[in-house]
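From the thread on structure requests for the teaching lab: each student submitted one protein with a one-line request. Submission from student K.M.:

"Model Fe2OG dioxygenase domain-containing protein from Linum tenue, tokens only."
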Amino acid sequence: MFQPLEPLPSNLPAPTFCRRRLSSVHTNTTPTYSSQEAPTAAADEEIPTIDYFSLFSADTAHRSKALDCLSAACEHYGFFNLVNHGIPDGVIDGALSGIADFFERTPVEEKSKYKKGDPGARILWDARCHAGENREHLKLLARPTFHCPPNPPFFREALGEYESRLHEVKLGLARAMSLTLGQEESYIEDAFELELGFDVAAMNHYPPNFMSKGTMGLAEHTDPGFIVSLVQDMDGGLQILTHQGKWINVHIPPHAILIQLGDQLELLTNGKYKSHIHRVLVGSYKTRRISIGTLHGPSINKFVAPTSEFVDDTHPPAYRGITYSEALEANDRYEIEVQSCIEQLRILPAVV
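Reply posted by the TA:
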């Protein structure tokens, strides 16, 4: 069993209303980094912090400022820390504690019942320990129906409460993001049919470095869906490749939620709002870490393609349309695996 978790540091920086805006412009190209760069090298930089309640403030000027900050975060970063989101600290802590107990107390024989086998499975468990990946993970369908292992008994209740409250936050962000795109509040919610959205909770147990084989907890990738919401029980480990091609360390204040834009939002907006490459490291951490990332998707059969609002003569469609189910099943994957296929959907520019 992994060693007990050390307490969270008390000197984490306090969140702010809105961080600075990057100056570089958005492109429809995939960011790259130098082959000479060390595999896990990254810089410590501030990332945007968005106050959720400010997005719905009755004060028009205050709300407008918050929406401007959200717009800049989505277009120039593709991720941000969300604070003042209304989910009680105890609900987040309960969900993290529940999944920690599942990983550390449930016998392997019982967890192995959920290993990959049935293409229609709604719960998936696995554990990997090699140079490219060091983690144990559990994925389960959170919405439109909730699936969860029965043990430990309080885990189902704790995670269900967290996902229920997170659903409301997701809908609120969809409405606010719609406004930042110059559309009606219901635009994203309708385009993705979010009330019936295929949401998958992906929970990870990263080992301490002395139990890992290499520095990588999870190799670089992007995520499908509308957005991904992430909470974890200690800070550190996550690195993101910015749209400007620079790896940065991501620090999440206690009980804040990291929001990352998903592939399907990139498709819908024809690349105006982009998903991003990220990875997880274990090499410098002496204790185990727990995270819950929920991938909030469109309804499973929803067809997503660049819409007319983001296509014109100077911005032709940059992606092929596809249903969410087809996207998740690409490359012989199961829906519950929620793997990206964004690179296969890009339309290469015509050669003149």
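TA comment: The first strand starts at residue 43 and ends at 44. Residues 153-180 form the longest helix (28 residues).
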